[in-house]
Amino acid sequence: MSLELTPDQTRLMMLQVADAIIVAEPLLSQADRDLGDGDHGLGMKRGMEAVKAQLAALTPASVEQVFVTTGTAMMSSMGGASGALFGTVFRAGGKALAGRAAFDAEGVALLLQAATEGVQKRGGAKVGDKTMVDALVPAAEKARSVASGSLLNSLTEVSAAAEAGKEASKAMIAQFGRAKTLGEACIGFPDAGAWSVTIMLSTMLDFVSKAS
Ligand code: ADP
Ligand code: MG
User: Is 1's pLDDT higher than 60?
Assistant: First the structure.
């Protein structure tokens, strides 16, 4: 069972994440149409195409570099609130891995903690506001509690925690973005950004389970 990924395996994992988000574009667009302005899927797709262009040519020196490159590509190609926020997920998350030779369960915990702190500092959302924070916070908490185990176990648990957070967002009334104006009409629909987080984590799990 694989306990950790090399920088190049981490790069290949993030290329798979990029493809999964691109494939999910219609689903993410519809999710944002139900609550917002409908641009989330196309914004994420544009971001992930930029990520693929950067990662395809990269010979990574570190896992930090893979994630920081991902965040920089998203931030500079997507624009808007979620470009800055997803850019922060990977740039802040990646920087928290400085000096680590491989991506392991401890790395998942460090990345998600820094990502969550960065997003909350930048965007001001807390749990219950119906944003990506509702997937990130439970994922980061779970990652910390399983940080001493295997990478496969970590991503199994973390992916499930994020999914539960995304599902919980269905019952929430949005406090940010256009969805805020909908009030109780939000209920029943999951947050699009939280859904993106779950797709990313479940694809990381898929990659690691096949590499193991
Ligand atoms: P925009 O809101 O500019 O249309 P997107 O549609 O791409 O951008 O992204 C919307 C997603 O961004 C939401 O579903 C939510 O998850 C996330 N989001 C928006 N504002 C915030 C915030 N302040 N903090 C955290 N996440 C946020
Ligand atoms: Mg939108």
Answer: no
